[in-house]
């Protein structure tokens, strides 16, 4: 019997089974099809214009490392005409972010892209280690998520960029669709599948990997021998999201198209006008100027709670009441400052033997 050939080029021997389609293909066809699909997503959504300054949100993890590699590759191959930057947020998590930032510094050298690192301590005066010491491990991810979102925008503003791209992949988007359904959060459900979001005063944000499977990102990083950091955060991540993730992985094992199907379902929902009308209008935070749907942005409220020893101030209704009852904000309270420029650095490890032999590919 003649040896089986790659389902795409029909010339080379296949070395992997593609998780998204189940096709058995060769390495160079995998690279090409993976890169071309991202290119198609970018062009079909008209994400960029020539001359755009684009920051890649880089954590040192697999998604953002592959994104940096792909953005550079496609920008060169198809002459997008983009000025690319790496932007990293240092949450101040000892034994996790300090190590992953070393990986970003290594990527910075490999891809020869300018790197900006902005830290929570620089911006908020608190590291995540300090925050966890004060609030414990229950709401730590709420602080971290709110602070990261604003830090990314501020870091991007410091770089003078027009657009931030993040490594959110198809699995992340499908998981968010499921979570918004399970929480009944219709407003977020309506927004979460958008490839690109932009408020009036905000920097554009997009997800070029919106349709890219996590398993394929891992394979791409592996076969390209990219340097990335794969350790989990030491502070327990959101347990509910973890259940949604496990559920999604079970669905994917039974039917690989489940991930794309859920995204398509999310895209097809239409939000009723009453729901849209019920959404708060965006304004700017009276204290720090960041976009907000209230007088104070969420980060300023959370920061005030930390500073005044009322950690639930921005989290529970009871916390808000406590803060209001505690009287006016003291004048000497630490607030979020205006931006300043920062710069570069270096080092990290890489992967080995093929963990996806054809007979036991990740899609099972
Ligand atoms: Fe921050 Fe929570 Fe993510 Fe850790 S798991 S980086 S604390 S959001
Ligand atoms: Zn091939
Ligand atoms: Zn604010």
TrEMBL record:
Residues that bind ATP, according to the entry? 57-59, 63, 89, 167, 172
Q: What is its EC number?
A: 2.7.7.-
Please give the superkingdom of this protein's source: Eukaryota
Q: Cytoplasmic tRNA 2-thiolation protein 1 C-terminal domain location, by residue?
A: 283-312
For molecular function, the Gene Ontology terms on record are: ATP binding; nucleotidyltransferase activity; tRNA binding
Keyword Iron assigned? no
Name where it's found: Cytoplasm
Q: Which UniProt keywords apply?
A: ATP-binding, Cytoplasm, Nucleotide-binding, RNA-binding, Transferase, tRNA processing, tRNA-binding
Q: Where is the tRNA(Ile)-lysidine/2-thiocytidine synthase N-terminal domain?
A: 54-232
Per the UniProt entry, what is one GO biological process? Answer: protein urmylation
Instruction: Relate the protein's function as given in its record.
Output: Plays a central role in 2-thiolation of mcm(5)S(2)U at tRNA wobble positions of tRNA(Lys), tRNA(Glu) and tRNA(Gln). Directly binds tRNAs and probably acts by catalyzing adenylation of tRNAs, an intermediate required for 2-thiolation. It is unclear whether it acts as a sulfurtransferase that transfers sulfur from thiocarboxylated URM1 onto the uridine of tRNAs at wobble position. Prior mcm(5) tRNA modification by the elongator complex is required for 2-thiolation. May also be involved in protein urmylation.
What this protein is called in its record is Cytoplasmic tRNA 2-thiolation protein 1
Question: What is the native source organism of this protein?
Answer: Jaapia argillacea MUCL 33604
What gene does the UniProt entry assign to this protein? NCS6
